Amino acid sequence: MNPGKVETQSATQEANRTSRDSLTITDNRTGKSYEVPITDDTIRALDLRQIKVNAGDFGMMSYDPAFNNTALCRSKITFIDGDVGILRYRGYPIEELAEHSTYLETAYLILRGELPTKKQLDEWTYHVTHHTFVHESIKKFLDGFHYDAHPMGMLISSVAALSTFYPEARDIFNAESRQKQTWRLIGKMPTLAAFAYRHSLGMPYAYPDNDLTYPGNFLNMLFKTTELKYKPNPALERALDVLFILHADHEQNCSANAMRCVGSSHPDVYSATAAATAALYGPLHGGANEEVLRMLLDIGTIANVPAYIKRVKAGEKKLMGFGHRIYKNYDPRARIIKRISAEVFDVMGRNPLLDIALEVERIALEDEYFVSRKLYPNVDFYTGLIYQSMGFPVTMFPVLFAIPRTSGWIAQWEEMLLDNEQKIARPRQIYTGYDTRTYVPMEKRA
Ligand code: CMC
Question: Has residue 11 got a pLDDT over 60?
């Protein structure tokens, strides 16, 4: 059964079932047997603690570095079947949302659990749009960064700084306050991101334009120069909106886990979001899109692709934008992104790196190394090419991931806060260090 999915058992499986949904564990150290309940194909790690050699024992733990096989929570937000390549937000397939929805509507769905009515969407859009301005002091704060500061570093810092402007955000169990911080965070993320970009160019900050859509306003704050009113290109505006939809949530990934973990000690949502943004920055997570582009530039020509693949297989390099902890099939987001890239290239001209990317994909999908390990292109493989064609510098790529993921992070945070089973996240360890030692004075040390 797919992890996390409560499916109907097949007839044969059903016939082979005994009446008990439990697991019997025999401890061969003592010969004692224990019966542990099974719910949703899962046992509770705490049920193992009764397994002891003697009464003074701490009890059995499970060891799972990197959470390969540990469910952290019960969640209703996002479903992934990595073997088949399925992604759904609140039950809606990503393909349908990418086709028919907008990012703001999808964010509402992710946060509230249902698609909004017209009135609900209008209200939601109004509130997010009217929280796009940031305090003028944020500008002074950004001005302190070096001209070549990485925009993700600036974003992480400025999101954390928001917490100092809204001290009431510490009232995390107040639903009204959570709602207000949600409008603010989703509204201000594009502003902070665009300001970080303009700072790196030494250009004056462009203020939000409330007449524009969420992605349209973001393009305005990035690219507006002397025109009185910025008019986003509709094809690019829609492409960005779809990219935002595809990045809105992805269940218990590294940054969502950071959001839940930091949030579990009950700081305000801005501090937890800064932690999640930091987790996303890494090249194994949201920073991979940046690394893919550097890799394609490094490969340089189609003729160099086989030699590069050889180095990957020899363990010298990783093929960035390939592989996923959950997907052991084509990432459904990558499929949609490949299609959008064609639409963007129609407007902006074909990205010359595309041919190298296509060749990498072609060779990798046929090569035994990648096939046997089920390594397929992930969401980050083609996004960089689109972002580059749209005029974004490479360092902005992970920022473009962080903006839409904010809605997913807040949904994960809120679900965690309201889950009675959750407490402060605090894993166990297997201590492998020294037993007690007596302090050695300096003159006696070797
Ligand atoms: N290139 C070459 N080999 C790879 C790659 C890769 N990109 N990814 C995994 N492998 C190999 C890995 O060396 C291992 O081989 P072996 O069994 O011989 O030791 C095997 O495949 C299994 O990999 P793993 O490291 O156990 O897999 P993981 O689930 O721990 O890591 C991953 C998942 C995404 C971190 C990894 O695939 C990776 O580093 N990919 C490149 C970075 C990347 O594109 N990240 C973006 C992920 S999607 C966006 C997001 O949601 O963050």
Answer: no
User: Which residues contact residue 83 at a Cβ distance below 8 angstroms, ignoring those fewer than 6 apart?
Assistant: 2, 328, 329
Residue among 1, 443, 407, 400 at smallest CA distance from 190: 400
* 254 to 66, 258, 322, 433: CA distances (angstroms): 9, 6, 17, 27
Report whether 92 contacts 109 (CB < 8 A): yes
Please tell me the distance between residue 419's alpha carbon and the centre of ligand 1 in angstroms: 32
Q: Is 319 in the pocket of ligand 1 (CB under 6 A)?
A: yes
Of residues 2 and 175, more confidently modeled? 175
Binned at pLDDT 50, 70 and 90, residue 330 comes out as: confident
- Ligand 1 center to residue 325 CA distance, Å? 7
Q: Give, for 79, the enclosing helix (H) or strand (E).
A: strand 78-81
Task: Tell me 90's DSSP state.
Answer: T
Closest CA to 64 of 34, 33, 85, 43: 43
Q: Look at the chain and count its residues.
A: 446
Angle, CA of 328, 330 and 333, to the nearest 5°: 120
The structure tokens listed for 172 are 């995390």
Choice from 247, 252, 375 to test ligand 1 binding pocket (greatest atom count within 8 A of CB): 375
- Residue 73 to residue 412: CA distance in whole angstroms: 10
What does the pLDDT look like over 287-305, one tens digit per residue? 999 999 999 999 999 999 9
Ligand 1 midpoint to CA 308 (Å): 17
Would you say 181 and 270 are in contact if contact means Cβ atoms under 8 Å apart?
A: yes
pTM as predicted:
0.93
Q: What is the pLDDT of residue 10?
A: 52
Q: Which residues of 330-364 are buried (b: 16+ CB within 10 A; e: fewer)?
A: ebbbbbbbbebbeebeeebeebebbebbebbbeeb
Residue carrying the six token digits 């799972």 = 64
